[in-house]
Design brief:
Low-confidence stretches of chain A: none
CATH superfamily of chain B: Histidine kinase-like ATPase, C-terminal domain
Number of domains of chain B: 1
Largest sheet of chain B: 5 strands, antiparallel
Number of strands of chain B: 5
CATH class of chain B: Alpha Beta
Number of helices of chain A: 15
Order of helices and strands of chain B: EHHEEHHHEE
Strand order of the largest sheet of chain A: 6-5-8-9
Strand content of chain B: 25-35%
Order of helices and strands of chain A: EHEEHEEHEHEHHEHEHHHEHEHHHH
Low-confidence stretches of chain B: none
Radius of gyration of chain B: 14 Å
Oligomer: heterodimer
Shape of chain A: elongated
Chain lengths: ~425, ~140
């Protein structure tokens, strides 16, 4: 894919970046380099996980979502809150308060993404009963997981659950409902996902498995939080807007999706490091008797997203209370089933590959390995690359030079000094 | 084309380290753009062989040689050797100790699985001296 056309939600604030390489070392796809004292993102490799946003002490990495004013571009606007939103507020007993607050900040209607999540769970249960599918089935709800499989674990592509994420389904479902209710044209209705993470913001602009997203815009949880906060305490008689039950709301936390599949042979893991370990194990067929694998890039699940405001464990505790206090509500069953499946296959994106052919890649790797012997192998990051191997790879690719390594420079300097000493000594003699 | 050689020492009874070599090789094969099926077979076979070295042979040395046509991995150890190769290749047969089985290994599927996923399996062994297992996967 042409990288200039790639859209990412993670960007850099150059003013704030001090070029410290913290993000460089934590990036799971080695997508960041420090060049000219500023971090730069290699677009083809970025999977929008938001890890760099979380680790940057200077708040130089940020996620770009749409401003709330975007909803004015549509005659009828619908908020699609991710269930992780509910864990952000303290002292809430009834999530209808939060859903009502969303309407008060400007939306005409609200449609819970957790309702769509329950529909995805129902479809997953059916899918798991088929015996002609490769096992285990891997959840595709987390777009970052989907992206890392696409660039690093192509052999697991056949195991992916080929369903749209709840966000997409919610947008289609909500729009269809609004067309019926208002008589407006579909294009006059804006559906806005209230997102916990940058990866989902990217998915609305560049979806995977879906040709065109039904989501009109993505607004961060952090942005609506500040607007909702002053209103929440004032709402004493909320509208009855909640439409999903315990299983749907549980999707906000790691393991929640698995609870809805009706099969106890599942594995749920969260946090990028764990996700990668599980994907490695799946690739090596080390996991036996696992039917379903739920992976979330963020620690704790979506409540740990980089666009949320609360600590994931605090948010989870609040959600647990909220779930217990909420009476289970069954989702409406007017869901059109044609909307569930992907409409295009997800293919391998070989962005980590070194060359066009195995032979070309091998000759490059030979050069890389030779170059690596010049470097100390301590992966200090001072050159702006995450490791000595990555620097060697960059040099072979023509993006960097050996002089970026301070150890190489020091050696050259030492030689120079020695030569000078020698010359001075000879002069004295 | 000059073949690419990778070497990995395998340490004794350290299960936390088991699988490191197969992971590294898998990564390299992906960087080189080998077909998925080749990578997958190599990863599974290597993992099994690596675990075998940890369980039975007090570690050893793995040497992987890569060319565009064929990938070879040699697992050399100075362990107890295999007294009966035919038995060792039988599914379910295992001499793993109770403590190893308690860890979930030693199901007797190691060598049979390696045989299943590779194009060539060669075992040179001498009781009391050690074992050298060579596996090969053809790319095309």
């Amino acid at each position: 894919m042409d990288s200039s056309k790639m859209i990412h939600s993670v960007t850099l604030d150059k003013e704030k970046c001090v070029g410290c390489t913290t993000c460089v070392k934590r990036c799971p796809t080695n997508a960041i380099r420090v060049r000219d004292k500023k971090a730069t993102i290699i677009k083809e490799r970025c999977i929008d996980c938001g890890e760099c946003i979380r680790v940057c002490e200077h708040h130089a990495k940020k996620a770009v979502a749409d401003p709330l004013t975007i909803i004015q571009n549509y005659r009828f606007s619908i908020a699609l809150p991710a269930p992780s939103l509910y864990g952000q507020f303290s002292g809430i007993r009834d999530r209808n308060v939060l859903l009502t607050a969303l309407k008060r900040i400007g939306f005409d209607d609200v449609f819970e993404v957790s309702a769509a999540a329950e529909a995805v769970s129902a479809a997953t249960r059916k899918e798991l009963q088929r015996d002609d599918l490769p096992r285990p089935v891997i959840s595709t709800a987390c777009p970052t997981v989907l992206r890392i499989i696409r660039v690093r674990f192509p052999s697991l592509l056949p195991n992916l659950l080929p369903y749209r994420p709840p966000m997409e389904l919610a947008a289609r479902w909500a729009r269809a409902r609004a067309v019926k209710q208002t008589g407006l044209k579909p294009e006059e209705i804006g559906c806005f996902f209230i997102s916990p993470c940058p990866a989902k913001a990217t998915s609305a602009k560049m979806p995977i498995g879906t040709v065109k997203s039904a989501v009109s815009g993505v607004i961060s949880i952090a942005d609506v939080y500040t607007k909702m906060m002053p209103l929440v305490k004032k709402i004493t008689e909320p509208e009855q807007l909640a439409m999903s039950g315990v299983p749907g709301v549980s999707w906000a936390v790691s393991g929640g999706e698995s609870m809805g599949i009706g099969d106890t042979n599942y594995l749920a893991a969260d946090g990028m490091e764990n996700v990668i370990r599980i994907l490695e194990a799946l690739e090596d067929e080390q996991l036996e008797n696992v039917h379903f694998v739920e992976l979330n890039a963020c620690v704790g699940g979506c409540v740990g997203g980089a666009l949320t405001v609360e600590n994931p464990y605090i948010a989870k505790a609040r959600l647990d209370r909220l779930i217990r206090q909420a009476a289970p509500v069954l989702p409406p069953d007017d869901l059109p089933d044609w909307d569930l499946r992907w409409d295009e296959a997800v293919e391998y994106a070989p962005v980590m590959q070194l060359g066009e052919s195995v032979a070309a890649a091998m000759s490059k790797l030979g050069q890389i390995r030779e170059l690596e012997t010049h470097f100390p192998g301590m992966d200090c990051g001072a050159c702006g690359a995450p490791s000595c191997h990555a620097l060697a790879e960059d040099i072979v690719g023509g993006f960097s030079t050996e002089d970026q390594c301070i150890f190489v420079i020091r050696e050259k300097l030492q030689k120079l000094i020695e030569e000078q000493h020698k010359a001075a000594k000879e002069d004295q003699e | 084309m000059e073949p690419l050689t990778l070497q990995f020492p395998v340490s004794t009874e350290d299960f936390s380290q088991a699988g490191l070599a197969s992971s590294a090789v898998k990564r390299t094969l992906k960087d080189l753009g080998f077909p998925n099926s080749v990578i997958r077979r190599m990863a599974i076979a290597m993992y099994e062989a690596e675990i075998n070295m940890v369980i039975h042979a007090n570690g050893g040395m793995i040497t992987v040689t890569i060319t565009p046509e064929v990938i070879t991995a040699v697992f050399a150890d100075v362990g107890p050797g295999i007294p009966n190769i035919d038995l060792a290749l039988t599914e379910g047969w295992s001499t793993a100790s109770e403590s190893v089985r308690d860890l979930g290994f030693g199901a007797g599927m190691g060598l049979p699985n390696i045989q299943k996923y590779t194009d060539r399996l060669d075992i040179q062994t001498e009781v009391g001296k050690g074992t050298t297992v060579t596996i090969e996967i053809n790319v095309a």
